[in-house]
């Protein structure tokens, strides 16, 4: 077992690092790491349906798609992530309990009544502090989970406040649970850094042959390339969302009601329909046609809208209101 110390807190780098270790290293590995404030969505989720886009953009919170399944989660420096990457010899996949048992054993030794519940959760007194997910690549498995230690729960609730009414899709939906921080249940006060050190030390003792290591400069450079090519791109983080239907309506300040219905596939708007009791001088079918086939991406949509004199198509309705309706 190689225990890799990961001091980096850039979420794009950290999610890319997991793919690198899974696909480019041969030995079993364990990693503890933290992300700056970010939202991490499951591989098969519709990103826009999982996040509060306005809040995320206003606070410049990165949104990154990971390799594993499961639901969307909020990360910050009060949350600890743990990752196992191991070789498997058969098609029998180790269950989540195997990977989470060291976490439970440590917490129980510290007087915390932590247990495994449901499909993939760790809880204390019925409240979730850890969610887990995994993915397979050839003969290797990546299992990772979160450990809420002193996370800002209010920020979490704001980031993950989505409006499911806007979306009709087959993507995996996140299930919200009552949550808690580990620090609230410890017998004595401990910082998140101290807990990481304690857990790392516990893992070293659990695996006598364990070797402490850090990523080399060459490995770090390769991971940065993966960030540039994949994990920092709109195409991966948003465009990979499954096919979905999007609809939203609003009463504008001066121009009446407006409704938009979209059908999006591979990140592109295949169908665009605009309805409402608004007044107009030019047919909004022109805008519908211009948007069809384009990416459901704010920068792209804004450029298309600005190629029109919107006042002719929507009397007393401005660009800001139209944009808010499309996302």
Layout: helices, strands, pairs:
Layout: E1 2-5, H1 11-24, E2 29-33, E3 38-41, H2 47-50, H3 53-58, E4 63-65, E5 73-75, E6 79-87, H4 96-109, E7 114-117, E8 121-124, E9 127-137, E10 140-148, H5 153-159, E11 167-169, H6 192-206, E12 211-214, H7 217-231, H8 234-237, E13 244-251, E14 257-265, E15 268-276, H9 285-291, H10 298-305, H11 310-313, H12 319-326
Parallel strand pairs: 1-2, 1-12, 3-4
Antiparallel strand pairs: 2-6, 3-5, 6-10, 7-8, 8-9, 9-10, 11-13, 13-14, 14-15
Radius of gyration using CA atoms only? 23 Å
What is the percentage of strand-forming residues? 25-35%
Shape: elongated
Elements, N to C (H/E): EHEEHHEEEHEEEEHEHEHHEEEHHHH
The major sheet is characterized as: 8 strands, mixed
- Percent of residues in helical segments? 25-40%
- Total number of strands: 15
Question: Which class of secondary structure composition applies to the elements?
Answer: alpha+beta
Mean of residue pLDDT values: 91
Amino-to-carboxy terminus distance: 45 Å
Biggest sheet, spatial arrangement of strands: 7-8-9-10-6-2-1-12
Tally the helices.
12
Unreliable segments (pLDDT under 50, ≥5 consecutive)?
Answer: none
Keywords for this entry:
327 residues; alpha+beta; eight-stranded mixed beta sheet; four-stranded antiparallel beta sheet; 12 helices; 15 strands
